[in-house]
Amino acid sequence: MEDANTLARQLAPQVSDLSAALSRPDLANTVASRFGSVRLIDYLRASLILAVDLAIETVGVAQPPALTEAVRSLAGVLAERYPGRSIELRVPPYAAVQIGARAEAPVHTRGTPPNVVETDPDTFLALATARQSWTRAVAAGSLVYSGTHAADAARALPVFRPH
Q1: Has residue 161 been placed in a domain?
Q2: Predicted TM-score (pTM) of this structure
């Protein structure tokens, strides 16, 4: 069985080629996928989320820059899918987004928001990719929330099911 160092050496040329290809000025904005035409940036972000999920599942950790982008991408999807300003989701130090609650809830404009959900990057990634449930994260103390509508954020998870 090959070890991680061997695989890293084998992947280095492909990573270099990919970096060069993504730097081209004539790069298309969309790519064909099995779901139809997709923005290239969204396709790359989804691929990165899959890679980060696989890294965490197999070796228990992902590279910090990859984890950062995966968390920001998934938080951004939540904000797009659940527009609103009644719940603030915080994943320090990588992301903070506002999402809408299911019911009428106070809208956050400035200062301390009335409904806050906060978790660490690893827990957020696990919640967003269906590797952990809201209930387990709360019981473990890795997710905290406050406000009468903050728990409504649970309905938005998972964001992406790679398994």
Answers
A1: no
A2: 0.84
